[in-house]
Amino acid sequence: MSAFTPIEPATESSKTVETPDALAPVFKACGDSLRLEILRVLRRDTFGVLELSQIFDMRQSGMSHHLKVLSTAGLLEPQREGNAIFYRRPLRLDRGLVQDKTIRQVLETLDEMELPERLQLRIEFIRKQRAEQSQVFFARQADKFREQQELIAEFELYADPVAALIRRRQPRGGWRQCLEIGPGEGAFLAVLAELCPSVTGLDNSPDMLAKARLFCAQQGLKGVELVEGDTDDLLDRGDSFELVVANMVLHHVASPADIFLDAAAMMNPGGCLMISDLCRHDQPWTKEACGDLWLGFEPETLTAWASAAGLQDGECIFIGLRNGFQIQVREFWKGTPPPLS
Predict the structure, then answer these.
(1) DSSP letters along 239-290, please?
(2) d(C-alpha 210, C-alpha 184), whole Å
(3) How many CB atoms lie within 10 A of CB 94?
(4) Is 175 part of a structural domain of the chain?
(5) pLDDT at 16 (0 to 100)
(6) Domain extent at residue 28
(7) pTM, 2 dp
(8) Residues 80, 203: one domain?
(9) Is 339 contained in some domain?
(10) Which terminus of the chain has fewer Cβ atoms in its 10 Å neighbourhood, N or C?
(11) CATH of the domain at 288
């Protein structure tokens, strides 16, 4: 399954007269096996030129040429992250044109093929490098976590709307098994512990986990288990949840798309993934000051990742902040979203 939003059929008003010339750049770009491998590697991930050069063990100049050809053909699009340019598959292929349909068919065909192990290992190495970068930041800033985070948004600005939505979505009989990914100092665990008898907090930073453990002890929270690791560890344990929450976490994660896939795999049928995170912004100082790996996300990006994981869109709330940031609160369901109570 492609990780991007399916193309809707063209309407009469959107149809235009086309010629085969529109397909020439696509077929030219696909006429090189290396470029096809690049498209496969970028199925869910967003990589920079240097990272792709590392994955394919080639010079940066050569990789830049291939990326230019793919971008010209519409098979990739650039994404600026501060001073660096990353590449991803296009988010929108919805014009109903022959060129877009051809691109979709190419990507869907490539996605039916397994990546060679050598490429999988190199991708994992890049993800590990990113994760270690984030861990180093939080180890250094653990004592200033709240102060650093509130440079962007105070906790209550996004936590309160998420908590209100969770309460409105509470199933008959209540939530029973909840997971929070990246609980930070643990403040939102108190909300979940109030609503759910079994809560798991997952974090790959031992320093932040120690903060959360202290908070839980001070608040006397019951039924909370704190786990050091990532979602793969919970998948290996066979854990399952009705509700998965990730508050302001995705922009710190090495491969955000994997959060959707792993959450979907861990959620029971009818389960909900609740996310709050930054919308796309152009304030690169957050990388240095707040340890951000990504400058937020377009809402369409989260929708595409969720769709690829088999999740359906639910409620969507946008919160504008005075400092120019905007937060999106999103929910994604493993099944049809129930009506709000």
Answers:
(1) --EEEEEEES-GGG-S-HHHHHHHHHHHEEEEEEEEEEEEBP---THHHHHH
(2) 9
(3) 17
(4) yes
(5) 54
(6) 12-115
(7) 0.83
(8) no
(9) no
(10) C
(11) 3.40.50.150
